[in-house]
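Exam revision sheet. Question 4 asks you to relate a sequence to its structure. Input first:
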Amino acid sequence: MKFQKQFLIRLIVCFLAIAANMHTAQAQQFLFDKLFFGTWQNEKGKMQTYQAKQPVYGYNWNLTTDGYNGWFGTDTGLHIGTSRRTVKTVTIASKEEFKNLQMVRILLYVKNDFKFTLKIGELNITKNIKATKEDATIYLFQTENKSGKIEFTIEYPKPQTKAIYIYSLEALTALGESKDNTPQIEPTKTKSFILNRTLSHEHWNTFCLPFDVDAATVKETFKNPQLREFTGEVQGTTMIFRDATEIKAGTPYIIMPSAEVANPTFTNVVCTAPTPKTVSDPTGNFAFIGNYNPTDLKTDGTELFLGAENKLYHPIENDKTTRGLRAFFRIKDAVNTSQGKYNIDTEQETTVLTPLQKNSETPSHVFSIDGKRITNTPHLRQGIYIRNGKKILIQ
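Answer key, structure tokens:
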């Protein structure tokens, strides 16, 4: 059966557990029909190696196979073998190394049962896979943050007149909220990223990325979210935020998706802001500061983080690290003020974020550190919680 442009895609998860809510930006990948178009024929049916026409995103690829080039004008994938000409083995390998890969996604259509092998550095994954009735299958592989050249092999038990279609490969580098992301943020180099972070739809999340995300991708990936950026304007003690539709590299934002978003991915983006930005008012007293990596905040009251119930909280000495891919607030005179009230105006709602007051008389609600309300408070497990704006440690 010839592969057509309109096809059904099946998702196969190999050796991993993926969060249910994974949203992928629409973009190109390594498309193997374009990489090897017109470079090979293999009339003899012997193992031969062919080089891609040109590098893509700085990566060169080799194709090694005993199969015949079955492309006949309308295929949208690398078509190897036909109903008359056999194929047994296909290997595609990069010449350059990838860094800190968390996941590899490969789109295939293989007409018979086959053995699949993926190698990245010292990582070696081998699996026997049953053929599917669908026209194409996405195979996902957790790659444990490994670095190295990518090589994958599709092998039939013996030569078959069953075609193999190889469409694309996507290598995903992880950006984590709990690790130093500096090595992964390589300016000017095109990469695909997966963010190890969950964004809640129940409250505002601070957010900062080293690459641009266009309006259409923001809408799709974050499920038509509310997105705000600091204008640099302050009225009294209220910081004015305005509506935004796209994410600019390095700029800090607050965002609230319409539904929870876990581990979003961004395909073929360029990190144009290796250092996160600080957006301040003209006096320099009020600032909204992006951070890519876990960052220790000052505990003198001048640096605040956004937490449960959309409130601003003071960090405490034994727990002052805010996680990465976020932003925090710096208010220089907060330590000296007697009022201690600082609000954020998000245009649609005048004071969405209410600041912490040390002697608050609000009900004694308890929240987890990521802002989720805890209902079974008499039996809290070990960990850090927030009660009435203060962090408590349960041991």
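Marking note for examiners. The chain has a mean pLDDT of 81.
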